[in-house]
């Protein structure tokens, strides 16, 4: 019998009853002596015998009773052990180092009896036991073993807690000793059913031939029916190869449903149907391009269909010839390699101009807002819309928070000018105090809310209009009353110039307003070298007729010596990697380093064999990446590269913003992104 083991609790006091009775008996003996000495001696003799017997029983009976209690506990423990051994859940006990001390029958059937006294890490090599030993109380890990998947629970067992909870025996040993209980739940079948259920879910999608009419018009009339049949056959055959159900609902529109399990293969092929349809050539001068939208992981088929429609709208807004997969908040893009083709018709511009006129006439005031660190295109297009609103007799204000060197030559012509109101230009905080429900807010040259001069203003009115030439991204302004986004346009000034020609006969630009718009058009096209089409020159002709002076614009935007030196320094230290150029533009001493960075990116394209350029500029802790690409088939789509790192833009003009890194780290990040995308075939 271990003397360290003692009896405690109620049983302890129960065994001490003879001693308590001895106290009572002592009182009786004293009382007997008080009554009669002879009776007292007799009682004393009986008391002595009682005490002797009580001591004998206490000294000899207690160990025997303790043994009996321990034996009972052991027998009871054996019953529990038997039940635990036969428990239909694999169960084991580990020591504090992760060594397996004991296993029940079902765990032994899985790993074998010889695994006892071995580290659990040796038995399950994929399990990181160090992470298990760091757990607070309990942790869960998935373990794959013999083609089975077990959700395993590890839980600390404290001997101290057992000692404190025990009410019969008092253990005075090492209370800090810890053990680990391990439960393994076989979830192989459950997970297989979950996976099969997920794979069998239907995913809704939509396919739109985004240039159907243009492709048909570029084909001989006798071959148009054949072209339409080839397009339909290609699309139908491709989708049926993935067991999809596809139905043509319009001449240029299809809907389909496909099992979720096929989506990984479709995405891995990067929607090869885009390339297959583009290669159709039966004499059509224009390649056929598609927009595909897919809604995945939706809670219902109706929601999946709605997400597919939203994805198609996003693909169309980004210029077409691409697929967009919307899975909740996550949006993935595929394709989009081809350059946007300018549409020769201006019908859409006329329709949008008429709608914008009705919106302005229906509101009491108009606010026009561009993007942060506004450039000349943003300001010029805002000035054009300002003139439209004033012609319609509506108060108008342009929101601009920071007047940079790039826009100062334009703004100076309007400030202190008696022909213009003193509050023509206001800050976003002042605009927030003036705005109400009867305000029309027009967003120009940007379609991402976080990039606007005042994102908080978007919630102050329900009448929001978007006019932009950048491709849409997953971040978009919610529920605009009018959205006119044309990625093929060279600039926002080009779009506004077209709108002004249709918004009303009374709209006439003043010469300094025409100068501002012409400057935006000229700078965004890099002196009419990038993204210029017939409509670009038509817009320039309209501005010229309105009084724009090319020489006056050119003189206003000449560079200072500091800017010229910064550009030369950036070009001198640029790095060439294959057909890509990378450079860091110094920001010290420059008021608008981001504008200079964009100019450096344009300059690098003048180097022989350079197809794209990336320039990093640091402003107030943020790294601004300016990306440029050459026009035509030789250039790459820099927008796809910028989107991969969180930015956006055009196929030839794009940008992004990075934080928590240096300019050189940002360029390294861009380089690795370009390499991986080239390897994937994404650019």
UniProtKB/TrEMBL annotation:
It is found in: Cell membrane. InterPro entries: DDH_dom, DHH_sf, DHHA1_dom, GdpP/PdeA, Oligoribo/pAp-PDE_c-di-AMP_PDE. Mn(2+) 2 binds at residues 377, 445, 469, 524. For phosphodiesterase activity, probably binds 2 Mn(2+) per subunit. Keywords: Cell membrane, Hydrolase, Manganese, Membrane, Metal-binding, Transmembrane, Transmembrane helix. It catalyses: 3',3'-c-di-AMP + H2O = 5'-O-phosphonoadenylyl-(3'->5')-adenosine + H(+). Gene3D superfamilies: 3.10.310.30, inorganic pyrophosphatase (n-terminal core) (3.90.1640.10), PAS domain (3.30.450.20). Residues 365-520 form the DDH domain. Mn(2+) 1 binds at residues 371, 375, 445. Its EC number is 3.1.4.-. The keyword Metal-binding applies. Residues 598-667 form the DHHA1 domain. The chain crosses the membrane at residues 13-35, 41-60. One of its GO terms (cellular component) is plasma membrane. It holds the Pfam family DHH. GO terms for molecular function: hydrolase activity; metal ion binding; nucleic acid binding. The keyword Metal-binding applies. Its cofactor is Mn(2+). Has phosphodiesterase (PDE) activity against cyclic-di-AMP (c-di-AMP). Belongs to the GdpP/PdeA phosphodiesterase family. This is Cyclic-di-AMP phosphodiesterase. It comes from Candidatus Onthocola gallistercoris.
